[in-house]
């Protein structure tokens, strides 16, 4: 019966016995000496260590994603949390909790789209036709276009690294080609292009590296946790207590009913 | 420009000026004297106060939903949180955060189904045909059947109150009839019935009272927050520190790779 | 051994067997018919049902606390969450998670102070001396004064209800007298008074009703969850996606270092 | 006035203008090419890039902290969350939210203790006297001893790296010496030693690198987020829905009052 409860919590990830900790089978003391932090991310998510080239590619995508300023609700909420008397852990949780389908899900959605396109190409479709078809079916294609940047400055360096990795045979380039075909289809006939954004460029990296789409979200959460923590910490340093979204001198507007009496004897 | 930021945070719900607070237009001091807590729930969600009969019906559904024991992950997670050195607010947040589509969404999904059926009946379909059709399309009908209770003890008293309200003309009974037709269709030809559970019975109440399906989830969150808080508080009283899911003597099983060397020079 | 894991999750609150649910020993179907929602709150937190007078007093304090507008970070964060593609449950969790020691803890801290004063009075001190001493030791006395309201409109009706309850012998008034003595001590020699705010007035109610200070926070979390839910729902209705703290047209300022080159070969 | 709201959200961390993103003043495209992920963590938390030796030391501490198995409540809660129909971001938030003062705060507390000892040594005290005095004042010294490991396998490799860094003049070793003195004081006169655990060893690393104690918690949150994500993902792969803390066959025990009638006419 003890087995039943123990089995209910069994895991492939980590083995713990008194004095020993293995992650994915590797003794933790060897990992401390010979693995990078990004290697450890890969190990726990994929079950084994990556080679150096794949690890560096993952690292570039994570580094690219750490922050995009306090205007993002995930960051703003974490900064507000930091002023409310909760631990930094709760401030970080507040931020990551907001990285849902709309605010943090575009990368995952882009990976799903790229997977579909790659499958269609493997089934014999031309990549340009498949991309044009996909574009025609979406009003908004996740991973492309940015409400603020005409061209996201993180696109080119990330795609450049993927192109290098394809040239060296590290990854096969199927998802990169699908993404570029979508970008071309989106530019076709428009006055201004809709280039890949950070969600699209990291989706290409993660998909080329074989991560499942849902882990695209997971990896973004890990990366953006860095910015969330840093902003929470910066706000802590400000000494503000109970920070609202706008300064107290700018009162929130009221648009509801005028003052009225509570009816008695309802 | 000040207006721009103030407008960004405008609301219909609450008016605050120095010395005055109105909720939905009613002075808070009048609400304190003449409104119940459930009235205040209705007021903020619907924009005006309910009559006494509707308020009591809502109250019964909320009361029915406060707890279902520590086996629920929302409750267990809150109890664990309470032992980790976070405030009760964070323990409660931990629990409510788990009331997602799978653990807390059946009521909302049932309300959506009932809305569809009611619409089909309004469009001329027979309620039994519409229900039989819906049942045939779902392997699992949200709001019906319980993995633990052969007949959920909360079903009968809640539906009894709805039937009374229909008899008195307080609500019109369309959603109740749709739900009963689904229950009948689910029983048809089966050796054992699949009666409405708490999610189904509260869905009938909330839908009859005119709440949107998504608020079905919201109301469940409010009600279950009571049990989450109470369990967190009970755990706090135990003095346990860092409560794991099973006692330390029942070690979680390890099912991953055997111990191996970290390859060097990757 | 099965007993070990079952016992690890044992509880006094709720008994579940197939077809039966008891809360605090009371069958849930009887509670649905004969108990209010506030009764159920009391039952789960205290182990038995309250009498009608105590239930009404608790209800008034909860009703008074449901909302104070979108300027509060707990509310603003929940509204932002609602625009990020997470469920209403996660939006509510986001808000309650911010009700920490600073933003949501004043009631608990006030209850602790009142408990100390009541103890000193029971030990023979005069209530005015004890209060004056407490005031002289705190720069900021939790539960007194409001950054926005010169006099919090929720103070008078709540204290009025407590006074009635004292007159009727429902509660003994020790904590009320201590709080009034603090208020008098704070007014002494100042040009403007520092009257009890919502945290202080509800602290008096909860303390008179015998709740532990930490549950003062818990009850505030339950009550404010109503406002958090209502604001999240109002924001959902707005259709805004990824709501930042200020409109996009008002860019957050940057105060860091000027653009510089990443040093190579570090 | 626009300035007022923009200033309210100003930051030193990230500069965003259309087409440009700088982190700490460095163009993001240069960071993608020339900085590691750990460099980016340092940059956002400290305001500038670290040298390679310091970056590697931080990396080792982060790598050492990624996971300690599903018995930890932070991990168990995240695994349960993953079965409840919430996004991976919310599952991760659930886990990090539990890393409070008790479950995740020992490193921060250890850093505070080490800072005190270092200050006393700088003020002229002998490190052994200061350590013995600190040990005598604490029943439980944060960062020392482990309820499961007689000797934490992460201690030696981490302290070895710090010793190397001291030998090379990368860090000054004050906090290392203080921690070793505490360890010696704890061993003094006991039948079994109480060696540094992961919290203590990483506290030494972070303190030697100049991080504030509260960021010790922050860095632990970042590192452990990797394990939290990986466990949530593993659980997702299991297909379990609504995972409770123990299998359904092991019912939680009930220890409350026997079934009783709700009194009427209260």
TrEMBL record, chains A, B, C, D:
Protein family (similarity comment): Belongs to the citrate synthase family.
Protein name as annotated: citrate synthase (unknown stereospecificity)
E.C. number(s) listed in UniProt: 2.3.3.16
EC supergroup of this enzyme: transferase
Keyword terms, alphabetized: Lyase, Transferase
Pfam families from the UniProt entry: Citrate_synt (PF00285)
Record-level GO cellular component terms: cytosol
């Amino acid at each position: 019966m003890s087995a039943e409860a123990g089995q209910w919590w069994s895991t492939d990830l980590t083995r713990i016995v008194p004095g020993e900790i293995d992650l994915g089978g590797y003794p933790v003391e060897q990992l401390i000496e010979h693995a990078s932090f990004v290697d450890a991310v890969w190990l726990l998510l994929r079950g084994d260590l990556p080679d150096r080239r794949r690890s560096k590619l993952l690292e570039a995508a994570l580094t690219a994603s750490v922050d995009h300023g306090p205007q993002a609700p995930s960051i703003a909420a974490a900064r507000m949390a930091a002023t409310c008397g909760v631990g930094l852990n709760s401030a970080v949780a507040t931020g990551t909790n907001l990285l849902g389908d709309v605010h943090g899900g575009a990368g995952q959605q882009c990976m799903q789209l790229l997977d579909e396109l790659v499958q269609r190409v493997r089934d014999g479709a031309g990549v340009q036709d498949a991309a044009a078809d996909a574009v025609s079916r979406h009003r908004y294609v996740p991973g492309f276009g940015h409400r603020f940047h005409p061209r996201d400055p993180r696109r080119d360096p990330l795609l450049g690294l993927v192109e290098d990795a394809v040239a060296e045979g590290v990854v096969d380039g199927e998802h990169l080609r699908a993404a570029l075909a979508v970008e071309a289809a989106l530019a076709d006939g428009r006055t201004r292009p809709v280039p890949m954004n950070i969600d699209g460029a990291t989706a290409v990296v993660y998909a080329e590296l074989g991560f499942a789409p849902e882990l695209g979200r997971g990896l973004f959460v890990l990366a953006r946790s860095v910015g969330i923590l840093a902003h929470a910490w910066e706000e802590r340093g400000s000494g503000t207590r109970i920070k609202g979204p706008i300064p107290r001198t700018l009162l929130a507007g009221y648009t509801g009913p005028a003052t009225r009496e509570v009816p008695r004897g309802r």
